[in-house]
Each structure stands twice: as structure tokens, then as C-alpha cells.
Amino acid sequence: MHPLKRQAAALLVGALLIAVITPAYIAYALPDSGIYHRNPVVFALQVVPYLVCGAIWLPLRAPSAPRIARGLAMLLFVVACALYVPHLVRPRSSGDMVVLAYMIVCAVTTLAVVIISAVALVTVALRERRRRTASIVWHDRHRR
What we know:
Layout: H1 3-29, H2 34-37, H3 40-57, H4 65-89, H5 98-143
Helix pairs in contact: 1-3, 1-4, 3-4, 3-5
């Protein structure tokens, strides 16, 4: 595995752990609001953005895929830290809408990963096509 992809995988696992540990810790630290944080849907949804990113970028063999994978994984790690670490440091009681908040965060993050990945994949494909075309034109000019 490419070293940058290994770093991307480590960042994705780290972000995933932060995202999954946060509701579990809040449920432990605040037993009164724990019922909302122990919802299995919360834990299932926390995994989705990181699995989508890993599924799109880690198996890809394009030359620029490792850099893009690491950049996107780093972005997801920073976002996970910004969203979840304040709640780990200072857990607060929350109401029954917390599951909806986790669902919205998951949906927005997954949508952002998909959109960024689509733009990056199209850009990579266009660059590859331009490179091939330029190579063919250069080869044809110098062949004569």
C-alpha cells in the first residue's frame, strides 16, 4: 500500500474512533441523557462518512489518488475533532433531538465527501485525458 494511502487509512480510523467514542462517552458521563446517545442508529451513522471516503479513495489506482485520499482523510479528521472533541472534553446534557443532530452531521459529512470526491474524480479523469491527448499529439508530430 502507498504510504500516503496508509496515512489516509490511519486518519480515517482516527476520525471514526473519535466520532464513535463521543456518544458512548457522553452516555457514560451523563447517565440521564444516555438513552439518546446509546441509540444503535447513532453508532451506525457515525461510521458512514469514513467508510464512504475509504471505499472511494483507498482502492483507486490513479497516480494522484494517494494525495487526494490523504487530503480528504485529513479534512475529515479535522472536522471530527472540531465537532466531537468539545463534547468529549465537556459533556453536556442534551434532549431527544440529539439523534437527529447526529443524523444531520452524518448526512452533511457524507454528502460533502461524495461531492468532493466526484469533483476530484472528474478532475483526475480530465487531466489524464489531456495528458494522453498531448502525448499522442506530441508523438504524431515527432514521428514524421
